[in-house]
Each structure stands twice: as structure tokens, then as C-alpha cells.
Amino acid sequence: MSETTFIRDIASSHVRGIQQFPDKADAEKFIDELFRFLFINSGKRNNGQHPDEKYQQLKSEFESLLSVSLEKNDDVEKHSSTFFNALPYIYQELLKDAEAILKFDPAAHNLAEVIIAYPGFYATVVYRLSHQIWQQGIQLLPRLFSGYAHSKTGIDIHPAAHIGEAFAIDHGTGIVIGETTRIGNYVKIYQGVTLGALNVIKSEASSKRHPTIEDEVVIYSGATILGGETVIGKGSIIGGNVWLTYSVPSNSVVYHKSEIRIKDKNPFPEPINFII
């Protein structure tokens, strides 16, 4: 390939089927501004800007992102209206999430602290906004939003996952929630939890690969729950570092019991030093 051809190919946005895509920095700026509009500057002037003006500015920015995210025959204005019309409902759902964190976490003193300082709440905000866009049939833009939240919080929630109301993430670092995960209401998850697939076979991309977590389940840190047929029954408690690939009934308590042994001259029945 000549240098001229190479430069021409780079300049073309449709070479080898590659379409235009929204600017990553603009997407990150938009989601942060929307977060601040909803929870921090709500009802107040922002640098002299009336909330109505800020709302219209956000719509304009969103439509600019959509214009390079959609196929030519898609209606940018229609998608924008659908998203912004859903914001009041999403806002109420997010307040329930914040209240759930405040209720569950003894270290949380008030709602403002949860909203401003808790990375789990920020990740949940970005998830619920991204999920709405995903449901509208738009995929790339919500993946940019969720990827940004992941980079900021260490929490990776696929925008296609279904999560019920009053969802509480405590600490959160290292949480992974896969694409086909279904989570019920009043679920609490601690850091390092993985809700993942048993395998990553591409042919199963359209199948349910991730677990279902029913209402009022608590999953403690480091637990790994895998598989599309795995169901954690309502009201169950999953202890730290548990590895589950099968369903458990409602109100189950699943945990690993630590064993303490005093050293003696007898060899351990299992090796405790693994060399890889």
C-alpha cells in the first residue's frame, strides 16, 4: 500500500466497514455534565446558566453524539426526545438506589454523601442512563459511557444488563456485571463480585450467559457467580469468595468455612504452597 493510499484510507470513515463513531472525550464530558445536572446543580444556576438553558445544552450535546452514532436513516431528534423524556423516571429510580445505599451502609451519614462521594452510586447512575439508550437500540454510545464509569470506579456494568430498583453497591472496586445478567429489587453487592459467563464462545452471544439474582439478595466481596442458568433465590446471602456455577433456592446462605489447624509433624493433606 502506498503512502498516499494509506492516508486516503485513514481519512475515509467507511473503509472496511468502519463507520463514524462519537468522540470519546465528548461522550465522557456529556455523561459527567448530565450527572451534575441531575444531582449537584439541580435547581441552581450553573456559572450563570439557568437550568432550562443547561437542559437544552445537554440535549444539543446528546444529539451531536447521536448524529455520529446512528445509521443515516435513524431519527436523531426522536431518539433524543425518548431519552430525555425518560429522565424523570430514571431520576426517581436513582434516588431509590441512593436511599438503599444510605440504608445499608453504616458509614453513610446522609444522602448527599452517597450522591457525591460513592463510586458505586456514580456507576449505577451511568448504568441506568446507558441502559435506557441501549434499550433504544443504540449500542456504541452506552458502551462508551459504561467504559468511562469503569475507568473511574473500577465497576464494570454492561448497559444491556437488567437491574431492578433500590440497587446498592458498597465500595464496588472490581465488580463485573455481564451483558445478560438479571438482578431483582433491593439487591446489595460488595466489591470484587463477578456475575459472569461460564464460557466466552462467540456462537452463544445471543443466549443468556450470565446469572439471575432475585430480590433482596446480598452478595459479599469476592464472590463469583457464573452461568446463564444459575439463579440465586430471593433473600439469599452469598458469602465472600464463594464460587457458584449452580442455582440456590430462596433464603439460602452460601459460604466457605475457614479451617484452623495447629502445625505438627504430620504433613498437610493438601498442599498450601502452589508454584506456577
Summarize the structure.
The chain is an alpha/beta fold and 276 residues long. It has helices spanning 3-11, 24-39, 51-67, 76-104, 111-117, 119-135, 140-153, and strands at 156-157, 162-163, 168-169, 176-177, 182-183, 188-189, 194-196, 212-213, 218-219, 224-226, 231-232, 237-238, 243-244, 253-254.
Helix content range: 25-40%
CATH class of the largest domain: Mainly Alpha
Number of helices, counting only DSSP H or I runs of 4 residues or more? 7
- Low-pLDDT windows of residues: none
What is the topological layout?
Elements: H1 3-11, H2 24-39, H3 51-67, H4 76-104, H5 111-117, H6 119-135, H7 140-153, E1 156-157, E2 162-163, E3 168-169, E4 176-177, E5 182-183, E6 188-189, E7 194-196, E8 212-213, E9 218-219, E10 224-226, E11 231-232, E12 237-238, E13 243-244, E14 253-254
Parallel strand pairs: 1-4, 2-5, 3-6, 4-7, 5-8, 6-9, 7-10, 8-11, 9-12, 10-13, 12-14
Molecular structure report:
The protein is of the alpha/beta class and 276 residues long. It folds into two domains: 12-154, Orthogonal Bundle (serine acetyltransferase, domain 1); 174-257, 3 Solenoid (UDP N-Acetylglucosamine Acyltransferase, domain 1), CATH 2.160.10. It is built from seven helices and 14 strands. The chain has helices at 3-11, 24-39, 51-67, 76-104, 111-117, 119-135, 140-153; strands spanning 156-157, 162-163, 168-169, 176-177, 182-183, 188-189, 194-196, 212-213, 218-219, 224-226, 231-232, 237-238, 243-244, 253-254. The strands form three sheets. Strands 1-4-7-10-13 form a five-stranded parallel beta sheet. Helix 3 (51-67) packs across helix 4 and helix 4 (76-104) packs antiparallel against helix 6. It is globular, with a radius of gyration of 22 Å. The relative contact order is 0.08. The mean pLDDT is 89.
